[in-house]
Please model this.
Amino acid sequence: MGTLGDKIYAVGGNSPYPNTVALSSVERYDATANSWTAVASTSAARGLHAVAVLGGYLYAIAGQNTGGGRTSLVEKYDPSANSWSSVASIPTARMYAAAAALGDYIYVIGGFTWSGSAYVYHTTNERYDPSANSWSTVASMGT
Model:
């Protein structure tokens, strides 16, 4: 979920259990009209991902793909063009990460992956610089 202007965007997600599949659909909520509108879908289905807003764009970051694996794909939504485009992939693919914009950057914090029969929790944190379209590693969490 992310907000651009006075609209709220619901990006992707998962269909209901037990037939869970990742979704690529995106919907926009207009509180003034009290209505939802479908907008351009992401190029790849994903759930359990992070969303951040920076510079008037919405970013869908990493998450789980339809096959249940993690993805490092990052896409940017331009509301004026109603279109998504790929940007640099995040180095550490993960699910359930948190993302936030601060200053000129997007920070992605924590999350986990599934490795065979156990969860692997990430202390790795990464920062996206949209002007350079690149990621860098920043200080890790202690736990």
Summary: The mean pLDDT is 92. The chain has no helices and 14 strands. The longest strand covers residues 22-30. Residues 96 and 140 are 16 Å apart (CA to CA).
